[in-house]
Amino acid sequence: MLLPLVIFLAMVCDALTALLVRHFIRGVSKNKKWCTRLGLRREYEHLDRWATLFRKSLEAKKTYPVDADYEGQRGLAVGLALRSSVKEFDYALEYYAAYAMAGNFMVVVIALFILTVFDLISGVVGAARFWSVFVGSPLILGLLLIYAIQKYCYAHEVEFRAGFITLWAPVQSKESEGGQGEPRERPKEHGGIVQ
Fold first, then answer.
1. Mind listing the pLDDT tens digit for each residue in 153-184?
2. Residue 150 falls inside a structural domain
3. What are the tens digits of pLDDT across the range 48-73?
4. Which residues constitute the domain of residue 49?
5. Is the pTM of this model over 0.90?
6. Where are the alpha helices (DSSP H) in the chain?
7. Is residue 122 in a domain?
8. 64: buried, middle or exposed (CB in 10 Å: 19+, 13-18, 0-12)?
9. I need a labelling partner for 139 at 20 to 30 A (CA). Which of 32, 37, 172, 184 fits?
10. Is 172 a domain residue?
């Protein structure tokens, strides 16, 4: 009887996270000013660099349509990475799961904060618990926010990097399993043709 209740509460928590937290985290992670303020400038710059490299390689290849929006390009990068044998893509999945988990923890902290406020209003909670909640909750939320943004940025960086590698990696045919495959051209800033 306890397992269905736990599963239901987890679904409610994840739905609240999707509605309240994840959109906010995505918005902050795409804003250079906020990432710099939170100490995540390097993560933002790495993500931006790989997204730009992927977009430029799409324009150079002209094999796939170049979507104007970020999410379309990211979806294409994920599709290309899944089609390839880039082992690094597993890291993206792990980091994206950590981002989702941090968002869920943020909702739990917010819910506990709200419950404590109601307890405080009803007179159940003393002043010591009041101060620990009002000081501890924002601190925990801030740390979880930084953690979630860091994992979100790195997951997308890996997706763009894997998509870029897939675009410029040699094609391996199934008949020539040990062979070099067909060479593909690379952009000039990446050294020409690769075998």
1. 998 888 888 888 888 765 444 444 444 444 44
2. yes
3. 999 888 888 888 877 777 766 777 78
4. 12-167
5. no
6. 2-20, 22-29, 32-37, 41-61, 70-83, 89-122, 127-168
7. yes
8. middle
9. 32
10. no
